[in-house]
Design a protein that fits this description.
Radius of gyration: 14 Å
Helix content: 10-25%
Distance between the termini: 30 Å
Shape: globular
Number of strands: 5
Structural class: alpha+beta
Amino acid sequence: MDGPRSAVSARPVYRGVAEVSVYVAAATRGRGVGKTLLQTLVQESEVNGIWTLQAGIFPENKGSIALHQSCGFRKVGMRHRIGKLGDTWRDVLLLERRNPGVGA
């Protein structure tokens, strides 16, 4: 797993919001590694006072979107032309997961 979580801002108001990324090597995909990593990340975030996890995923990455949704993430919007891969501007689907024990 690369970069389990990163603060989205240094501002105190966002201290409980983190961006997550899970990368699984092609040779190990389909074995549940990604789900185990993401579930662990979610559990650790809740123990450590994180109330929102967010992830940005290329819209065509159906496997990653399904993985995140299976761990409680929901689609919240599309960020158009927010990322640049090589010379190509990319849209990124924004997903988030709220800690059910905070702000309910």
